[in-house]
Amino acid sequence: WLKGSSSSEEGAKMPGCAHRARMCLRGTDDTIPNVIRVPIISEEQPQQFTLLMLPNMSVSALRKKAAERLGVDAGRVHLYSGNKDLGCDEDVSIFSAGVQDNRPLTVEVEALPLQLLLFAAIGHVKGGGVLCTFTDRSEDENAEWKETFSKLMRATKSKLHKDQKIRLQVSKDSDSCLCAFRDARGDRVYATVVSKCDLPEGMVFKFLEELQIRTEELLKGGTDKDEDGAFVQLRPLVESLLRRHDESCAARLQGHKGDTFKAKANATHTPIERFED
Questions:
Q1: Does 31 score more than 80 pLDDT?
Q2: What stretch of H or E contains 134?
Q3: 221's torsion region: left (phi>0), alpha (psi -120 to 50) or beta?
Q4: Do 59 and 138 fall within a single domain?
Q5: Which Gene3D superfamilies has this protein been placed in (predicted)?
Q6: Within its chain, how far is the Cα of 2 from the centroid?
Q7: pLDDT(85) > 50
Protein backbone atom coordinates (compact mmCIF):
# COMPACT_ATOMS: atom_id res chain seq x y z
CA TRP A 1 0.00 0.00 0.00
CA LEU A 2 2.81 2.40 0.84
CA LYS A 3 5.21 1.07 -1.78
CA GLY A 4 3.53 2.78 -4.70
CA SER A 5 2.71 6.02 -2.93
CA SER A 6 4.67 9.21 -3.51
CA SER A 7 6.47 11.13 -0.79
CA SER A 8 3.83 13.85 -0.97
CA GLU A 9 1.08 11.24 -0.49
CA GLU A 10 2.95 9.77 2.47
CA GLY A 11 3.25 13.22 3.98
CA ALA A 12 -0.48 13.76 3.51
CA LYS A 13 -1.34 10.44 5.14
CA MET A 14 1.19 10.91 7.98
CA PRO A 15 1.39 14.68 8.48
CA GLY A 16 3.17 14.39 11.82
CA CYS A 17 6.15 12.32 10.59
CA ALA A 18 8.29 15.10 9.18
CA HIS A 19 7.50 17.29 12.17
CA ARG A 20 8.47 14.53 14.62
CA ALA A 21 11.72 13.88 12.70
CA ARG A 22 12.66 17.53 13.01
CA MET A 23 11.78 17.47 16.70
CA CYS A 24 14.37 14.71 17.29
CA LEU A 25 17.10 17.23 16.62
CA ARG A 26 15.34 20.43 17.64
CA GLY A 27 13.70 19.28 20.86
CA THR A 28 10.34 20.06 22.36
CA ASP A 29 10.78 23.82 22.15
CA ASP A 30 12.81 26.25 20.08
CA THR A 31 15.60 26.75 22.62
CA ILE A 32 16.84 23.35 23.80
CA PRO A 33 17.51 20.63 21.18
CA ASN A 34 17.45 16.95 22.06
CA VAL A 35 20.71 16.37 20.19
CA ILE A 36 23.50 18.82 19.41
CA ARG A 37 25.72 18.20 16.40
CA VAL A 38 29.20 19.49 17.24
CA PRO A 39 31.62 19.84 14.28
CA ILE A 40 35.23 19.68 15.49
CA ILE A 41 37.84 21.38 13.32
CA SER A 42 41.59 21.75 13.64
CA GLU A 43 44.32 23.34 11.58
CA GLU A 44 46.91 20.90 12.94
CA GLN A 45 45.07 17.56 12.89
CA PRO A 46 44.36 15.98 9.50
CA GLN A 47 40.83 14.84 10.31
CA GLN A 48 37.66 16.85 10.94
CA PHE A 49 34.58 15.24 12.40
CA THR A 50 31.18 15.82 14.00
CA LEU A 51 30.11 14.56 17.43
CA LEU A 52 26.49 13.97 18.45
CA MET A 53 25.94 15.11 22.03
CA LEU A 54 23.02 15.51 24.42
CA PRO A 55 22.67 19.13 25.59
CA ASN A 56 22.90 18.13 29.26
CA MET A 57 26.20 16.28 28.76
CA SER A 58 29.15 17.97 30.39
CA VAL A 59 31.92 19.92 28.74
CA SER A 60 34.26 17.30 30.18
CA ALA A 61 32.38 14.52 28.34
CA LEU A 62 32.63 16.47 25.08
CA ARG A 63 36.37 16.86 25.54
CA LYS A 64 36.77 13.13 26.25
CA LYS A 65 34.82 12.19 23.11
CA ALA A 66 36.92 14.55 20.99
CA ALA A 67 40.09 13.07 22.50
CA GLU A 68 38.92 9.53 21.66
CA ARG A 69 38.38 10.48 18.02
CA LEU A 70 41.81 12.12 17.87
CA GLY A 71 43.47 9.18 19.63
CA VAL A 72 45.09 11.31 22.32
CA ASP A 73 44.79 11.74 26.08
CA ALA A 74 41.90 14.00 27.09
CA GLY A 75 44.21 16.07 29.28
CA ARG A 76 45.95 17.37 26.14
CA VAL A 77 42.74 18.52 24.41
CA HIS A 78 41.38 22.08 24.50
CA LEU A 79 38.12 23.05 22.80
CA TYR A 80 37.37 26.62 21.77
CA SER A 81 34.20 28.41 20.78
CA GLY A 82 35.66 31.42 19.04
CA ASN A 83 38.40 32.57 21.43
CA LYS A 84 36.71 31.09 24.50
CA ASP A 85 38.22 27.95 26.01
CA LEU A 86 35.30 25.72 27.06
CA GLY A 87 37.38 24.18 29.83
CA CYS A 88 36.75 20.71 31.27
CA ASP A 89 34.16 21.20 34.02
CA GLU A 90 32.16 18.09 34.93
CA ASP A 91 29.33 20.27 36.29
CA VAL A 92 28.85 22.53 33.25
CA SER A 93 26.65 21.25 30.42
CA ILE A 94 27.63 21.92 26.84
CA PHE A 95 24.36 23.81 26.34
CA SER A 96 25.11 26.08 29.31
CA ALA A 97 28.63 26.60 27.92
CA GLY A 98 27.12 28.03 24.73
CA VAL A 99 27.68 25.07 22.39
CA GLN A 100 25.12 25.39 19.59
CA ASP A 101 23.82 22.88 17.09
CA ASN A 102 26.03 22.58 14.01
CA ARG A 103 28.33 25.42 15.07
CA PRO A 104 31.99 24.31 14.80
CA LEU A 105 34.38 24.20 17.72
CA THR A 106 38.13 24.46 17.28
CA VAL A 107 40.34 21.85 18.92
CA GLU A 108 43.95 22.24 19.99
CA VAL A 109 46.08 19.34 21.20
CA GLU A 110 49.00 20.04 23.52
CA ALA A 111 52.20 18.72 21.97
CA LEU A 112 54.25 16.06 23.72
CA PRO A 113 58.05 16.32 23.77
CA LEU A 114 59.56 14.49 20.80
CA GLN A 115 60.76 11.03 21.84
CA LEU A 116 62.00 9.06 18.82
CA LEU A 117 62.01 11.37 15.81
CA LEU A 118 63.87 14.34 17.23
CA PHE A 119 64.61 16.57 14.25
CA ALA A 120 63.49 17.01 10.64
CA ALA A 121 65.05 18.88 7.75
CA ILE A 122 64.49 19.54 4.05
CA GLY A 123 67.33 20.63 1.79
CA HIS A 124 67.56 21.83 -1.81
CA VAL A 125 70.33 20.04 -3.70
CA LYS A 126 71.05 22.87 -6.11
CA GLY A 127 73.24 25.18 -4.08
CA GLY A 128 73.09 22.94 -1.00
CA GLY A 129 70.55 25.17 0.73
CA VAL A 130 68.55 24.15 3.81
CA LEU A 131 64.89 24.92 3.19
CA CYS A 132 63.47 24.06 6.60
CA THR A 133 64.30 22.41 9.92
CA PHE A 134 62.28 21.68 13.03
CA THR A 135 62.92 20.30 16.50
CA ASP A 136 61.61 21.04 19.98
CA ARG A 137 65.12 20.85 21.43
CA SER A 138 67.30 23.83 22.30
CA GLU A 139 69.82 25.31 19.88
CA ASP A 140 72.67 23.75 21.85
CA GLU A 141 71.07 20.30 21.68
CA ASN A 142 70.34 20.35 17.95
CA ALA A 143 73.48 22.15 16.72
CA GLU A 144 75.17 18.81 16.00
CA TRP A 145 72.13 17.58 14.04
CA LYS A 146 72.08 20.72 11.91
CA GLU A 147 75.79 20.41 11.25
CA THR A 148 75.45 16.76 10.19
CA PHE A 149 72.64 17.68 7.80
CA SER A 150 74.60 20.63 6.43
CA LYS A 151 77.58 18.33 5.78
CA LEU A 152 75.29 15.93 3.94
CA MET A 153 73.87 18.73 1.80
CA ARG A 154 77.36 19.91 0.85
CA ALA A 155 78.32 16.35 -0.12
CA THR A 156 74.99 15.30 -1.65
CA LYS A 157 76.12 15.13 -5.27
CA SER A 158 78.84 12.61 -4.42
CA LYS A 159 77.35 11.02 -1.30
CA LEU A 160 73.67 10.61 -2.13
CA HIS A 161 72.34 9.63 -5.54
CA LYS A 162 68.79 10.08 -6.78
CA ASP A 163 66.26 7.93 -4.89
CA GLN A 164 68.97 6.75 -2.47
CA LYS A 165 68.66 6.34 1.32
CA ILE A 166 71.41 6.93 3.84
CA ARG A 167 71.91 6.67 7.60
CA LEU A 168 74.64 8.71 9.26
CA GLN A 169 75.85 8.41 12.83
CA VAL A 170 75.69 11.87 14.36
CA SER A 171 78.82 11.37 16.47
CA LYS A 172 80.98 8.62 17.98
CA ASP A 173 79.47 9.09 21.42
CA SER A 174 75.84 9.37 20.30
CA ASP A 175 73.17 6.68 19.92
CA SER A 176 71.26 8.89 17.48
CA CYS A 177 71.62 8.89 13.73
CA LEU A 178 70.42 10.96 10.81
CA CYS A 179 68.27 9.12 8.25
CA ALA A 180 67.82 10.76 4.87
CA PHE A 181 66.91 10.17 1.26
CA ARG A 182 67.14 12.10 -1.98
CA ASP A 183 64.02 12.23 -4.12
CA ALA A 184 63.76 10.54 -7.52
CA ARG A 185 64.27 13.81 -9.41
CA GLY A 186 67.32 14.60 -7.32
CA ASP A 187 65.98 18.02 -6.33
CA ARG A 188 65.58 17.72 -2.56
CA VAL A 189 66.86 15.79 0.45
CA TYR A 190 64.56 14.86 3.34
CA ALA A 191 66.05 13.92 6.70
CA THR A 192 65.23 13.14 10.30
CA VAL A 193 67.32 12.41 13.39
CA VAL A 194 66.22 9.38 15.41
CA SER A 195 67.02 8.97 19.08
CA LYS A 196 68.37 5.43 18.61
CA CYS A 197 69.99 3.90 15.56
CA ASP A 198 68.06 0.63 16.04
CA LEU A 199 64.66 2.27 15.53
CA PRO A 200 62.79 0.28 12.84
CA GLU A 201 63.77 1.76 9.52
CA GLY A 202 60.33 1.34 7.98
CA MET A 203 58.77 3.71 10.50
CA VAL A 204 61.42 6.34 9.89
CA PHE A 205 61.25 6.37 6.11
CA LYS A 206 57.45 6.27 6.16
CA PHE A 207 57.63 9.70 7.80
CA LEU A 208 60.14 10.97 5.25
CA GLU A 209 58.07 9.67 2.34
CA GLU A 210 54.98 11.51 3.57
CA LEU A 211 57.08 14.60 4.18
CA GLN A 212 58.23 14.45 0.56
CA ILE A 213 54.68 14.06 -0.80
CA ARG A 214 53.27 16.90 1.28
CA THR A 215 56.23 19.17 0.51
CA GLU A 216 55.83 18.66 -3.22
CA GLU A 217 52.12 19.47 -2.93
CA LEU A 218 52.89 22.65 -1.00
CA LEU A 219 55.74 23.85 -3.22
CA LYS A 220 54.17 23.21 -6.60
CA GLY A 221 55.15 26.70 -7.68
CA GLY A 222 58.84 25.92 -7.23
CA THR A 223 59.47 28.35 -4.35
CA ASP A 224 62.76 26.60 -3.45
CA LYS A 225 64.52 29.61 -4.95
CA ASP A 226 63.06 31.78 -2.20
CA GLU A 227 64.44 29.99 0.85
CA ASP A 228 62.84 32.38 3.35
CA GLY A 229 59.45 31.98 1.69
CA ALA A 230 59.81 28.21 1.58
CA PHE A 231 60.69 28.11 5.29
CA VAL A 232 57.55 30.05 6.23
CA GLN A 233 55.40 27.69 4.16
CA LEU A 234 57.08 24.48 5.27
CA ARG A 235 57.61 25.02 9.01
CA PRO A 236 54.02 24.25 10.16
CA LEU A 237 53.87 21.21 7.88
CA VAL A 238 57.22 19.82 9.06
CA GLU A 239 56.31 20.29 12.73
CA SER A 240 52.87 18.73 12.34
CA LEU A 241 54.11 15.65 10.47
CA LEU A 242 57.11 15.15 12.75
CA ARG A 243 55.00 15.26 15.90
CA ARG A 244 52.31 12.98 14.46
CA HIS A 245 54.78 10.34 13.26
CA ASP A 246 56.80 10.55 16.47
CA GLU A 247 53.70 9.80 18.54
CA SER A 248 52.70 7.03 16.13
CA CYS A 249 56.15 5.40 16.36
CA ALA A 250 56.12 5.58 20.15
CA ALA A 251 52.64 4.05 20.33
CA ARG A 252 53.56 1.20 17.96
CA LEU A 253 56.70 0.35 19.90
CA GLN A 254 54.98 0.25 23.28
CA GLY A 255 53.81 -3.31 22.64
CA HIS A 256 57.17 -4.59 21.40
CA LYS A 257 59.50 -6.00 24.05
CA GLY A 258 62.62 -8.13 24.20
CA ASP A 259 63.35 -10.30 21.18
CA THR A 260 60.23 -9.14 19.34
CA PHE A 261 61.40 -5.55 19.43
CA LYS A 262 64.98 -6.47 18.52
CA ALA A 263 63.84 -8.49 15.52
CA LYS A 264 61.77 -5.61 14.22
CA ALA A 265 64.43 -3.06 15.04
CA ASN A 266 67.15 -4.96 13.23
CA ALA A 267 65.06 -5.39 10.08
CA THR A 268 67.00 -2.72 8.21
CA HIS A 269 68.96 -2.72 4.98
CA THR A 270 70.67 0.67 5.13
CA PRO A 271 74.10 0.57 6.79
CA ILE A 272 75.13 3.31 9.19
CA GLU A 273 77.89 5.56 7.89
CA ARG A 274 79.80 8.41 9.44
CA PHE A 275 81.45 11.51 8.03
CA GLU A 276 85.15 11.64 8.67
CA ASP A 277 86.13 14.59 10.84
A1: no
A2: strand 129-134
A3: alpha
A4: no
A5: Longin domain
A6: 50
A7: yes
